[in-house]
Amino acid sequence: MKYKIFNYITVFFSVTVLTTSCVDNEDLLQVDPNVETAGSFWKTDEDAVAGINAVYSSLITDGTYMRSTPLLLDARSDDARTNSPWGSMYNAGRFNSNVADASIYGWAYETYYQGIYRANQVLANVPNIAMTNAALKNRILGQAYFLRGLYLFHAVNMFKNVPVPRNIAVKYPQKTEAEGWAQVIADFTAAAELLPASYASVSGLDSGEAGRATKGAALGYLGKAYLFTKDFDKAKATFKQVIDLGVYSLVSNYRDNFTTANENNSESLFEVQMSREAGGVALGWGGIPASNWGKTSARAITYAPRGFGWTDVQPSHALFNEFHDEKTQSGDLDPRLDATIFYNKPGGMKLYGQDFATYYAKSPADLNDIFCRKYQNSDGEFESEMDWRSGINERLLRYADILLMYAETLNETGDTPGAYGYIQMVRNRVGLPNLATTKPGMSQAQMREQIGHERFLEFPLEGHRFDDIRRWGWLQDATKLAWLRSRDAEFNSYTAGREFYPIPQLEMDNNPGTIQNDSY
């Protein structure tokens, strides 16, 4: 579905002073009949659906998936680079975000907690609604747990020691990273118990609405949380549950995961719904949704090739080169290269209806450069991204990720031979040779390296690579860090502790006693 964005609920009391007689205090507080209040709102099935839709709406503001969250995740990885003239963007990729200027990372932090607050409103109020559809109530609560878990997943993953709100309050104390992950796991566990495998056969106001959180999405993220906390046994069991649902399969065309052509496809466990047709034309820069907001993304213009957008993010040459390491069974280059990167390809390559070599002929630097193709509206239907309004859904979790994470847990729990088959499922889609034939009998350590390579080529510019680098401990490994620096000069400015972004100064000011992350 393309989400309906509901104006968030606000409470407004007007106080009328009556001077003609004695009055009780409660008589002084009157509800404006023209304004919806918390007391009058949470009453019906429709109210509950409107409330959960407000939680989803925090996914499409600038702090989250309109722009900032993909940027914050991609900028620090060795599959991407940024030479943005905007200091906040430039420094994000160089582990040098400014504590005094919370642009981008601070917007993300703020929006994660906006989403958590809205989820907590649903969890606090919906149980008290005498809903006519009990199954719908469970699905709404399941979605609230899922979305709270998702927002908190990002907050803990990017900012480490953060508040963990579970109810409505004025202030929330800072918690440890372990406490944060424990709550993420609890939320995804609760969500998985309440959510359906799909909405195709449910009855109620959400019937048939693709794009809402499902059991598979909750289990997928639960497995991911276990993986990130190195609980490999639980991660393995959870990923196997996703596989055993029998709901998901890889799409035949890899590129279909990054265009509008095949959104909410069989490979998608969860994606943020974007649309050029829904709502207004203004971008959701933050705060409470306005009536003129659209449901579009600014990712495309931010990552677009030179002349078609801002080119703030580009693929790394290490990524480009690694795509050449192994040919397909037919002797061709890995087709994921052309789905991911624009370059001066022998024989020609089109972008936005233009021939690459012809368009950049008068600019040798650009002619020999490489640019992002993934998530670009570049197949000829648009001349550029300059209207800032991309309608391409952001795919947060794909089945290919489940397969490769499951392979990783098999390897980490001593079943290295078992990992081969699940890796090969992903390789088969793009025609790569049988890994069991080309690299038989790998040790656990060798398989770890192979999984790193497989994930690097399957998920570039999707916000996964730096998460992998961090959770694998490569930044604390002198040999690996030197290798990363040889591939991406941005790692030269990394110092210990900078794998996390700083806690925004506003949070430090509003919550006295909050401790800043190391090295900031």
UniProtKB/TrEMBL annotation:
Cite the entry's keywords alphabetically.
Cell outer membrane, Membrane, Signal
Location of this chain's protein in the cell: Cell outer membrane
Q: Does the keyword Membrane apply?
A: yes
Q: Does the keyword Membrane apply?
A: yes
Signal sequence region: none
Extract the InterPro entries matched here. SusD-like_N, SusD_RagB_dom, TPR-like_helical_dom_sf
Q: Which Pfam families match?
A: SusD-like_3, SusD_RagB
The residue ranges of the SusD-like N-terminal domain are: 79-227
State the similarity comment.
Belongs to the SusD family.
Spell out the protein name for this chain.
Answer: RagB/SusD family nutrient uptake outer membrane protein
Q: What is the lineage of its organism?
A: Bacteria, Pseudomonadati, Bacteroidota, Flavobacteriia, Flavobacteriales
